[in-house]
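Worked example (supplementary).
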Amino acid sequence: MTWSEMQPLLTQGTYDTLYMVLWSALVTVVGGLPLGVLLVLTDKGGLLQNTVVNKVIGVIVNIGRSLPFIILLIALIPFTTWVVGTFIGPTAMIVPLAVGAIPFFARLVETAIREVDHGLVEAVQSMGGSIPTIVRKVLLPQALPSLVSGVTTTLIVLIGYSAMAGAVGGEGLGSKAVTYGFQRFDNQFMLITVALLIVIVTVIQLIGDLTVRLLARRGRAAS
Amino acid sequence: MITTTGLTKVYQSRDREVTALDGVDLHVREGEVYGVIGQSGAGKSSLIRCVNLLERPTSGTVTVAGQDLTALAGRGRRASAELRRARTRIGMVFQHFNLLDSRTVLDNIELPLEILGVSGQARTRKAKELLDLVGLADKAKSYPGQLSGGQKQRVGIARALAGDPQVLLSDEATSALDPETTRSILQLLRDLNQQLGLTVLLITHEMDVVKTICDSAALMQRGRIVESGTVGELLATPGSELAQELFPVGGTASGPDRTVVDVTFQGESASQPVISQLSRTYNIDISILGAAMDTVGGKQIGRMRIELPGRFEENVVPIGFLREQGLQAEVVDGESAATAAAPAVPEQTPAAITKEVVK
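After joint prediction of all chains, the assembly is encoded as:
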């Protein structure tokens, strides 16, 4: 393949990959953040201690995390079809990607929130703060650097998943690499897609790290 | 202002129960600084946390400013809206400050005002006033991470005052600070108590804190209050452990036929030459074994351990004289004096040293 042949494929692939990853990341954050917060709040000794809810969420999250993504992808086909109307194409892929990443992200949120000093929670309780206030004004802002770093990790995991999704009717760089690089034995094309994926991952990691550092610097400037 | 009755807190772990509070009755009057002192594990931390119900008491009631908080608490673990409203009128400061390091100093002080639903501009104005009050007007835009411990605690105090509370709870507020900073923070608390009429309940393990600012004090041991009262009352209580701790005087009898008396001076009597009067009136030689003068709760108080020649029976009249002068005189029996002073003066008594010098 010549460069002029490759270029539109790569551009389209990159666009599709970013489209799938960014949208599914958004859904993942919206779905995983409350789950992670609930995991902490309902835990033993938590503000909303509730063993049943905690165990149920915990089991769901663990099942979600232990299923290999490729299996999840196939198992979710009826659900995806029901939500999007089709199970093929980048938009349809957002569903399994988000479902696969939500449990993963929820655990990262849980860890981040747990690290918040309990004394701060007590301080806000002593001011008469309600539980939503505590979550909004203490837990989330204080855990923000860890949460951002969790989002970065999730984005990178999603890029990996999205390549697999390419094998089951998705689009994106992964799908292009399989179709043109692997099935047509075009090593050059394969190498370029790999390089491109590395660049995307590196850029995301860099942006993530920089954000974390900026956020963390506020509090710890002189201490 | 703060009353607890029969306050009990039992912590349950898997196979045993720990009683942190065992029927605590506490009474803090309006406008006073009340110190609860005790060693770690005595239950004082559980006590102060039960006052604003951060910790739910197992039984007993807590009343703050006439409001029965235990009745407001509701049944579940979640604080009811009424309890939360009551908490906005009780300020609390913490040993480790508990400031949000993701917010500036000003935003930290605004936090309780946000909870109270005060609008933006009024919030900032109030927060700035409070910063001014604690002497940190220039640190509004700093982050807590850039402040020293003493400054952080000042921010903590300003934050606790944001809701215009009548009561301030202080949970070991100076325990993480060096002695000099401790003094300045205590001074600030004292000033606030006097300027704003703020009632302060503090817990501490440092006797100096009680000495410096408390009007009243209570001693906690194993979940119970074993002694309590105003500092004056405590000092006037024979055998009071707190008085002894507040005012340690040492020294043992120099011989068998001696009577050791602890004399406590308060207020007016502190300035009268009673000892020389005693010596002249009864023509006896008095040795001073130990003495201390200090200001406790803003009052000049002194304590002296003196030795009179002869057994107790021979000294009934001079001791009566001391009591007539409005002093508190307490005879120390040989055994307890020996144990109290043994570690400090193992070999020679101060009196013995004095005699040698005189020779």
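Two points are worth noting when inspecting this output. Chain A has a mean pLDDT of 90. Chain A is about 85% helix and 0% strand.
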